[in-house]
Amino acid sequence: MPLAFGTDSEEYKEALDVILRQDLQATALRPIKTFEYSICIVGGLLGAFAMTGDVRLLSRAKDAADAILQSPFASKSHDPSSMYDVLYPIRGGNLLYKVYSRIYQWGRDVFTNEQHQYNSLAGIGSFSLEFSFLSQTLGLDKYRQVADRIFQHVASYQRKDGTVPNHWNVMTGEPATSNGGLGSGSDSFVEYLLKVPLLSCETDNDDLLTLTCGQEHPVLQDMLALHDKIVRGPLYSKHVVRKGSDASITYPTDNSRYHQLLCFLPGLVALGVSANKDVNGEDEFALAEALVQGCHDMYTQTTTGLGPEEIHIYRAGPDQISIFEGNRSYLLRPEYIESLFIMYRLTGKEEYQEMGWEVFESLELYCKTDLDYTGFKDVYGPEGGGRVDDMPSYFIAEILKYLLLLFGPDDFLLLNDFVFTTGAHPMRRTKVKGLMAHYHIQAELSNEMYVVRAPFPW
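The chain above was modelled as a monomer; its predicted structure follows.
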């Protein structure tokens, strides 16, 4: 909201008033997805705080994170969180919610079914960016420590190629499969292997995108090492398919299947090159450019100008590929637009803006209704083959935000200054070592006094 309308707008003031008055932990007596709550509620509040400096938003974010700590993370001795949980207010609140939450947790653990027993790697391992930013801002390590323990636990099961099992039994804390991947079920975990060090490691004085993770940050070192291992190993060998002999168009794949979610990879690889700046950088950046062209090619091959959800790709020969049936629907996924934004910011090439404009025009033509935007059932069929009656929250939070940034001023929300969460919420980066200004602000956060260490005023 502050990004789209500005803090002086009536829209932002109305939204802020609702957030400050509403009990975000106990809006309904029903379970919610812990992962979604973290990336949408905790991340959204922290992103709004990072842009405005309004400590009331930081207070609400801390409440939301504390509700996670004392619900799913408190119910087991091991770290992986359950998929669903009931969160309740941490400032006292309604006794009914507390009682129901505890009964639900007990029932879940004793009479659990498959829906609650298993979670994806992304679902249990994608708390680290939001929790690290909260710890850095408040000077409280408990949030980062929880996320670090989860990372260390799941990373201990990594395969030889660096990938981590993508399906977990949260009742035992053990992987439920030996299969790993980079896309669905793993994507945000892989994404945060780079983005958490980008947020937290010290930056070079001459280039804020270059980072150094010293010996005092062993978990950050491990994250960065695992990211590099994956990018320089299985990504090249197992997760790309070239379009014939043309290496400039390369499709991101998991098990020979292109998936929209994998289109986050071009932007991530390019960010990694900018941060590490080593001898492999030129080849890796060329791969990022080829991958974004592969995603673009998937879009331009359809009659709607929007890419399919998931398609099987098979190499029929050295210079020929075949694209088979799969999920032909379009579900308003944001990953391709995210990569276009990153590639444009890193290169300044207007072709990435042109690609983004093509998507926007197709969204307006095929997805826009009188009330909202919807997906559709068949990107290859006439008029999209019928609508999917759903507009997910990530359409506004991610697609529209990245489109706005793609065509907005180039110096607005610089990648030097912000790291974007998997939900596209901007977290303000730690500045150059020794140069970060500490503006001590006393804010009453959950009835306790903390010193907020953040570069105020914004």
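The radius of gyration is 22 Å.
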